[in-house]
Amino acid sequence: MENLIWLLPALPLFGFLLLAFLGSKFNREAIAFIGIGSVSLATIVSLYLAINFISSPPENGFISQTLWQWMQVNNFKVTITFHYDALSLVFVFVITFVGALIHLYSTEFMAHDEYYSRFFAYLNLFVCSMLILVLADNLVLLYLGWEGVGLCSYLLIGFWYKNIKNGIAAQKAFIITRIGDTSLAIGMFLLFKEFGTLTISEISQQAVSHSSSSITLIALLLFGGAVGKSAQLPLQTWLPDAMAGPSPVSALIHAATMVTAGVYLLARMHTIFELSPAAMHVVAAVGAATLLIAATSALAQKDIKRVLAYSTISQLGYMFLALGVGAWWAAIFHFMIHAFFKALLFLGAGTIIEAQHHEHNMFNMGGLKDKLPTVFKTFVIGSAALAALPLISAGFYSKDAIIWYSLTAQNGSPLLWLVAIIGSFITALYTTRMVVLTFYGTSKTSLSYQPGVRMHIPLIILAFLSVFAGFIELPHNFGHVTLFSGFVGKALPTTLLKIEPSESLFQLIAAIVCLVGILLGWKLYSSNREKVIDLESGGLFKFFFNGWYFDNLYKVLFQQPYFFLARINKNDIVDKSNDVIVGISSWLSNQLATSQTGSMRWYVMGIIAGAIMILTLQLVL
Amino acid sequence: MISNLSSDYVFLLAAILFALGAMGVVIRRNILFMLIAVEIMLNSAGLAFIAAGAKWAQADGQIMFLFILSMAAAEVSVGLALIMQIFHQHKTLDVDELEQLRGDRK
Amino acid sequence: MILVLLIVVLITGGILAWLIGYFIPNASKWIALLSCLIPFLITANLWQKLSYEIILGESSSLWLIEINTPWIAQLGINFHLGLDGLSLSMLLLTFFLGTMAILCSWKEITAKQNFFYFNLLWVLSGITGVFLALDLFLFYFFWEVMLIPMYFMISIWGSERRIYSSYKFFLFTQASGLLMLLAIIALYFINAQSSGVYTFDYDQLLISTAKSPYSLLIAIGFFIAFTVKLPLFPFHTWLPDAHSEAPTAGSVILAGLMLKTGAYGLLRFVLPLFKDEAIQISNWAIVLGVISILYGALQAFGQTDLKRLVAYTSVSHMGFIVLGVFSFNELAMQGVVLQMITHGISTAALFILAGMLKERLHTRDINQMGGLWTLAPQMGSIGLVFAMASCGLPALGNFIAEFLILLGAFQTQPIYTMVASLGLVLSAIYSIRMMQKVFFGEYQSTINDFKWREKTIMGLLTIAIVFVGLCPQPIITMLQSTVNSSLKLESKQKLKLESSIKQQIKYIKK
């Protein structure tokens, strides 16, 4: 079975190449077939590998396959090697499975788009890069996937390139994530300096016996990469703008997979992070701050996709909080559940927008409950998972674990727990706001289009998963199912608890907070819509609406100075130094030219004077 | 034969003639007189050569004078032809009017 | 002999193209193409043959192929050519890009075709000579050979400001060349004073132990000569003018090859001949390199002329080379050579693309472009590939080069390398700005997509850059011995041993 790993990225890559080179020659059916086919085949391969892996686990916990030697200079050796273990398995499964569903959805969503084949080519390339990222055995290969997904994200955000706004959003995403990437790259340089290798397993082996002061620095630099990719504080500003891309793209890249690459990176490099409690504290603090800032921002958005974008940032904040406190498996579990329900919500939002003449503003929606029944039902299920509705939603089980660990795990603290619980309250509030504004009340916009079966199937499957996927991991005070943590635990360290207060009590608090949030939301937003607009016209809401003015801050701090420098120095100030030389030469030339009077007499005088001078010199010397 | 002393006088005469010629070139405004002054300079040099040849009893001095003589003849013919041309084109022989040698200063 | 053949083919090809072009105008380009393809095939064949030898470790000497005959014996000047892994890779690049340059001027050059191809081939022959010469005088000779035809190429076939640019190019390179000549002559006499042998020979000078108080000055002379060509930060101002005004083929050769002769000079002469001095100036060099990286990127971002933009990206990328060379690390050194190759390919592609756009739109101003993807998706895709290459996207060659340089440099110069890494962000900024301005947005002008000739050029360049990005190992292996010898002191001793053996053999023969 190890011979099959290469197929995972190779199949989408093949699809990409086919579409990129011959895309214009195929008709739409063939394009859709290739696009879905390559990813579906990859899904089948991933399921086959997963079943094999679970039924007959390899001895050392992973399978690897080396394709070829990439580069070797002296002791620096990098191969194209795939490393398949429990952690990769989860990611590969989510990427291929959710990816395939989103491809299916896209065939209908993009059905009338001019650039059908380009879209699927990019999507396939994305799936390929993402799979390389999570399967990479060394950091250089991981970086290849990392940059590859960044490129695809850039291309897909700016997919409708004729509108300049999309282009700006795409550039923003690329540049801001690139800042994180650079931090990751520097982290890799430092890792190589310390360990002499960039192969992850070798680093992990050496790290245990390695005591170096630079470990914290390495961890923080790696985390810098994750911050960029996963839109955490302070590089979170690109994600809300990234919603300029088509909705399936937002679902796949900016919710389910790419933005969680940072979570994957930290989980993968957990040995480094475990050695540095300081770095772990930073991770947890950044996660907590992000989740709060993003949640409040989500509360004030008017564009449905921007609500979801901020909620993604916020949920990613939960994952980083979990990683930071040392609840490794909880983060991965939340990643999986989040991938299901957030993809569902984005796809649902995409359908709603598509069905309403591309209306993004929730205040112009309403009353869609009866018009789009299937979308409504699935969307509500997804929202329940996002709000972590107790007991019946998968989101509850994953998020509750994080909240619980943020208090009790190694690096947990009451403050983190408090932030997490407040975040969960705001989450419930904005989720309810979104659902109520979109589906209830009176209809504002007429329906332009009824979604078909290819849009409904992914919604239904994802809704199913958003409910039932949670049951594979139940807290030990009721149910005590540890299928997921037990499985992923093979690849990740176990979560150590420092205190053990009554878990039921805290679950109860979390559940009550969530329910209060939902009820409050219902009460506030299902009333008269004018009142709601009134309520949200305050200064605080404006502050939240603009995402705490991070964009404006960066504009003043970085963008404008850089633009200014580039503009004033367009003609290159250094070039002026040549003008100085040129100036001196031409000045001297002018001085000499004045002696050239044209009068014969002067010249003869000159000759005679010169002759006398030479003769005198001859006599004197 | 002339004595050493007298040859020194000849040198002195040559020098004075040369200086006079040079003065003439510098001071004169008429180009024809400048040419004559140049001739005087040339002949002073010739005189110096002859005197030197006589003093050291070498034939070189006289040979050089022959060279100078023939060159002066050629120079006068070319010079006069040029002066004719200049007069034709500018209707003047005043050098101060003829500042054509000055380059185009930018 | 085969090395002489490479140069001779180009020189005679140039003369033939010139002469025959008078009678049959269209023949000159075919002659040029042919006389560029022949050396390319010869080098490719050599590569294949020699890579086996290298892997098996059969070649005992540093030089895989060598030819050495007296030229001006009275002054100790030899016609000494030598080929090692470094020169071989550079030659392969030279002929590859030379072919591309000829193909891309196929339709662009209509006036005085024959003289154009003459100049082009002579530039190439000069570059070939520079990459092969092992006699410092000969090296200087070829250095000048490559300069003058280039001057003609810019001043005759350039665009509006061609006279200004060609003067500037000529003066900068000539002034720096003068510095090099002085340094070479000084080296010559210093060596002669200590050893009594008047020689310009590289191998001899390499083992010379002559020390003089002026060696730092001499090293700086070489350094400036090469970094003006490279170009490094304060000396870079000739480059944007020359690149933007030159015809496409001229820009391709300038950026793709001529800049590399500067880097080659640093690797071949400055490091091995002036080990200690190089260490002395390394800090300054690195600072300038880092400034180049950032300044070039900033300037590239500010430009509106597409070719000027690409020219400034070259400044930025060449900064990486200086950083790599002066961090004295094997990884970085490998990265430097790879950077020379990949930057050659990617920048050539961008210049060719700019040339094609200019042919179609008659402007280089990116504000007048936009939305070209709609009508020319193939052009857009290729533009995307090479824009990404220039911002160092993995799987494309430039990534390998820049990554190795930074990784290597970090081991010795962590702080500077961290600052230099900012270049990764800035390069992303200018690359995607270029993409946005040229290919995205609403379209303003009609444009035709690639024709078969253009498709061939771009296809080959793309294959090359992807190949280097995914399988750089053959090149790395080929360069191993050169990189080691330009870094390590012990190999110097080995060389000394070798040459003494050689001399003994000579005595025995006598």
Automatic annotation (TrEMBL), chain A:
Single GO molecular function: NADH dehydrogenase activity
Annotated keywords: Membrane, Transmembrane, Transmembrane helix
Signal peptide: none
Biological process per Gene Ontology, one example term: ATP synthesis coupled electron transport
Residue ranges of the TM segments: 6-23, 30-51, 86-107, 119-136, 142-161, 173-192, 212-228, 249-267, 279-300, 307-329, 335-353, 374-397, 417-441, 453-472, 505-525, 602-620
Entry's localization field: Endomembrane system; Membrane
Membrane found in the keyword field: yes
UniProt keyword Membrane, yes or no: yes
Top-level taxon in the UniProt lineage: Bacteria
Lipid bilayer topology: Multi-pass membrane protein
Domain NADH:quinone oxidoreductase/Mrp antiporter transmembrane, first and last residues per copy: 136-427
Cellular component, GO annotation: endomembrane system; membrane
Domain NADH-Ubiquinone oxidoreductase (complex I) chain 5 N-terminal: 70-120
Database matches in NCBIfam families: NDH_I_L, PRK06590.1
Protein name: NADH-quinone oxidoreductase subunit L
Species the sequence originates in: Solitalea agri
High-level lineage: Bacteria, Pseudomonadati, Bacteroidota, Sphingobacteriia, Sphingobacteriales
Recorded name of the encoding gene: nuoL
TrEMBL record, chain B:
Membrane protein topology class: Multi-pass membrane protein
Iron as UniProt keyword: no
Reactions catalysed according to its record: a quinone + NADH + 5 H(+)(in) = a quinol + NAD(+) + 4 H(+)(out)
EC number of the protein: 7.1.1.-
Superkingdom per UniProt: Bacteria
Any Pfam family the entry gives: Oxidored_q2
Cellular location(s): Cell membrane; Membrane
Any one Gene Ontology cellular component term annotated for this protein: NADH dehydrogenase complex
Gene Ontology terms: biological process: ATP synthesis coupled electron transport
GO molecular function, one term: quinone binding
Keyword set, alphabetical order: Cell membrane, Membrane, NAD, Oxidoreductase, Quinone, Translocase, Transmembrane, Transmembrane helix, Transport
Entry keyword 4Fe-4S: no
Transmembrane segments: 6-26, 33-57, 63-83
InterPro entries in the cross-refs: NADH_UbQ_OxRdtase_chain4L/K, NUOK/Mnh_C1-like
Family: Belongs to the complex I subunit 4L family.
Oligomer status and interactors: NDH-1 is composed of 14 different subunits. Subunits NuoA, H, J, K, L, M, N constitute the membrane sector of the complex.
Protein task: NDH-1 shuttles electrons from NADH, via FMN and iron-sulfur (Fe-S) centers, to quinones in the respiratory chain. The immediate electron acceptor for the enzyme in this species is believed to be a menaquinone. Couples the redox reaction to proton translocation (for every two electrons transferred, four hydrogen ions are translocated across the cytoplasmic membrane), and thus conserves the redox energy in a proton gradient. NDH-1 shuttles electrons from NADH, via FMN and iron-sulfur (Fe-S) centers, to quinones in the respiratory chain. The immediate electron acceptor for the enzyme in this species is believed to be ubiquinone. Couples the redox reaction to proton translocation (for every two electrons transferred, four hydrogen ions are translocated across the cytoplasmic membrane), and thus conserves the redox energy in a proton gradient.
Name the UniProt record assigns to this protein: NADH-quinone oxidoreductase subunit K
Species of origin: Solitalea agri
Encoding gene per record: nuoK
UniProtKB/TrEMBL annotation, chain C:
Membership in a protein family: Belongs to the complex I subunit 4 family.
Membrane topology of this protein: Multi-pass membrane protein
Compartments, as annotated in UniProt: Endomembrane system; Membrane
InterPro entries (UniProt xref): NADH_Q_OxRdtase_chainM/4, NADH_UbQ_OxRdtase, ND/Mrp_TM
Keyword flag Transmembrane helix: yes
Species name: Solitalea agri
Name of the molecule in the record: NADH-quinone oxidoreductase subunit M
Record's keyword annotation contains Transmembrane helix: yes
